[in-house]
């Protein structure tokens, strides 16, 4: 870390990481995730009667109730399974688990004003992080608990010998987690607020893998939005806050990639600090880099102004912790033993050797992270901005006409200037930018020449006729490839 890092530099990086309109702004990202789920219910309703019955009920609910529904891990899991089936060309069929849990939620809310899902099944509410999230305290056996535990077992560190025993919180453990949440918020307020928008719940557990202790975990889309903390490692708030940062950022990354395509080829890659293990891919490297960049900032904050917080949170070594790369208390020895070293390695690889396997959005993602952290002095200076291959010169016959796909389904997000679109021939929900949306709206069967004239009326104030023509041609090509539009004689 640079010896000249100041608090103002750290605060600036904290804001930059949390406010980027495409990859950082969790309010915007969460809105897109929620709107994608709403669009998904519209798509699934024709084949799933239980979803069709729930839709008119959901339309009467207040936004806060709908948001709570879509934050539930069982609802999220069921919707993602339905999306996965759709993308594989095998639309979900009834009976489907999504129908089941929507039925539970709507019937429960009608009876008592509660959704009857995971949070409502708690023995006792244990709110933490100023009520932004809560700790699991599930009854020993009921349908919700059974389904949640099944999903967790099937998706948590598959292929490894792992034992997990969930632990009910009490006043001491809930207080320890809440204290770590508070410390996180004081050190990196923008990042903490962002992370907690993607973490709907936490759980305490004793976790073992191959005889070793696990410090944190998540089950990905098996139990979305849920962070698992080791109940044996939560007394030290400095490292527990780092654990929350770590797993919470994985949840944020999962939400980003629900609609942002960052990887062109998910090729195998090497992690030198785990040279004896296999199965590491570019997607995993990108997710890890996202975490390590934020951890470097967290560690910088601890070293720069953490001392003034020790009166409230104790000294860094007040409680023992296990050595690991994302500890601000105790790290191992050797190359790549520290998070900063891993951050430097991944940043270099992703911006050079591995960059060709990223989409242009993925390259922007990496450059943004490097740019944010560069003043801290851990990574090398950002390389020349990566934009992928130069757009090809596209030539389209001016006599060719275009129209929208007559089978296209759409969900506009007018305030964001975005459009969700679904074409049965390309069974994956697409997110169109404002420019692509405008071009699609101009495709009413008119010729390329007529469309071009109207398009230039819209963009002519900022583009030359040649630039507008090329941008339109490229947009038409991309929309046609995604089956959003089609040629007409």
Compact summary:
The protein has 489 residues and is an alpha+beta fold.
Explain what this protein looks like in three dimensions.
Mean pLDDT is 90; it is low at 384-391. The protein starts with 6 loop residues before the first helix and ends with a strand. The chain has helices spanning 7-19, 26-44, 49-58, 63-71, 73-87, 97-112, 143-155, 171-187, 189-196, 237-256, 282-305, 310-313, 339-351, 360-373, 434-442, 448-459, 465-481; strands spanning 127-128, 133-134, 162-167, 201-209, 212-213, 216-217, 226-230, 401-404, 409-413, 418-423, 426-432, 444-447, 485-488. With 489 residues, the chain is of the alpha+beta class. The chain has four domains: 1-23 and 260-390, no CATH class; 25-117, no CATH class; 123-254, no CATH class; 401-488, Outer Surface Protein A, domain 3 (Alpha-Beta Complex). The strands form four sheets. Strands 3, 4, 5, 6 and 7 form a five-stranded mixed sheet that branches. The longest helix has 24 residues, at 282-305. The chain is globular and about 75 Å long. Helix 1 runs parallel beside helix 9. Strand 9 and strand 10 form a beta hairpin. The chain contains 17 helices and 13 strands. Helices cover 48% and strands 12% of the residues.
Count, helices: 17
Taking the sheet with the most strands, its summary is:
5 strands, mixed
Total strand segments: 13
End-to-end gap? 63 Å
Write the element-wise H/E pattern from the N-terminal end onward: HHHHHHEEHEHHEEEEHHHHHEEEEHEHHE
Helix-and-strand structural type: alpha+beta
**Radius of gyration based on Cα positions:** 24 Å
Assess the beta-strand content as a share of residues. 5-15%
Please, how many domains? 4
Uncertain runs with pLDDT below 50, 5 residues or more? 384-391
Share of residues in helices: 40-55%
Oligomer: single chain
Based on Cα principal axes, name the global outline.
Answer: globular
Average pLDDT across residues? 90
InterPro entries: AKG_HExxH
Protein name: HEXXH motif-containing putative peptide modification protein
Organism: Pendulispora brunnea
């Amino acid at each position: 870390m640079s010896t000249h890092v100041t608090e103002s530099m750290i605060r600036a990086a904290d804001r930059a990481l949390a406010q980027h309109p495409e990859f950082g702004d969790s309010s915007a990202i969460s809105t897109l995730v929620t709107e994608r789920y709403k669009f998904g219910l519209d798509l699934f309703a024709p084949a799933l009667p239980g979803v069709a019955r729930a839709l008119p009920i959901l339309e009467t609910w207040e936004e806060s109730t709908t948001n709570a529904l879509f934050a539930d891990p069982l609802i999220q899991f069921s919707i993602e399974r339905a999306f996965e089936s759709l993308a594989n060309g095998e639309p979900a069929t009834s009976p489907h688990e999504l129908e089941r849990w929507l039925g539970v939620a709507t019937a429960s809310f009608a009876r008592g004003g509660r959704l009857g899902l995971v949070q409502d099944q708690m023995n006792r509410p244990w709110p933490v992080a100023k009520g932004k999230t809560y700790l699991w305290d599930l009854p020993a056996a009921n349908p919700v608990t059974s389904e949640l535990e099944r999903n967790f077992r099937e998706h948590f560190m598959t292929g490894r010998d792992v034992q997990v025993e969930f632990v009910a919180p009490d006043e001491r453990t809930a207080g320890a987690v809440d204290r770590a949440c508070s410390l996180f918020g004081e050190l990196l307020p923008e990042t903490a607020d962002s992370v907690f928008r993607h973490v709907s719940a936490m759980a305490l557990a004793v976790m073992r893998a191959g005889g070793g202790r696990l410090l944190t975990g998540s089950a990905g889309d098996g139990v979305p939005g849920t962070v698992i903390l080791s109940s044996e490692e939560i007394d030290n708030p400095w490292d527990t806050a780092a654990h929350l940062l770590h797993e919470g950022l994985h949840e944020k990354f999962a939400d980003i990639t629900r609609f942002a395509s960052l990887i062109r080829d998910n090729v195998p890659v090497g992690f030198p600090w785990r040279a004896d293990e296999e199965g590491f891919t570019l997607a995993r490297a990108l997710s890890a880099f996202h975490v390590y960049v934020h951890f470097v900032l967290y560690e910088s904050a601890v070293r720069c102004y953490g001392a003034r917080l020790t009166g409230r949170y104790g000294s860094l070594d007040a409680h023992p912790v296990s050595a690991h790369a994302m500890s601000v208390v105790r790290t191992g020895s050797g190359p790549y033993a520290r998070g900063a070293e891993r951050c430097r390695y991944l940043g270099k690889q992703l911006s050079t050797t591995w960059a060709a396997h990223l989409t242009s959005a993925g390259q922007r993602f990496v450059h943004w992270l490097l740019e944010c952290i560069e003043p801290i002095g851990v990574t090398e200076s950002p390389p020349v901005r990566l934009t992928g291959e130069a757009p090809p010169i596209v030539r389209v016959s001016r006599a060719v006409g275009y129209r929208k796909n007559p089978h296209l389904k759409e969900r506009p997000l007018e305030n964001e200037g975005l459009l969700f679109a679904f074409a049965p021939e390309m069974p994956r929900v697409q997110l169109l930018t404002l420019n692509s949306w405008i071009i699609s709206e101009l495709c009413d069967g008119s010729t390329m020449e007529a469309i071009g004239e109207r398009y230039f009326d819209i963009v002519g104030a900022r583009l030359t006729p040649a630039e507008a023509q090329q941008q339109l041609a490229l947009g038409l090509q991309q929309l046609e490839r995604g089956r959003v539009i089609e040629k007409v004689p």
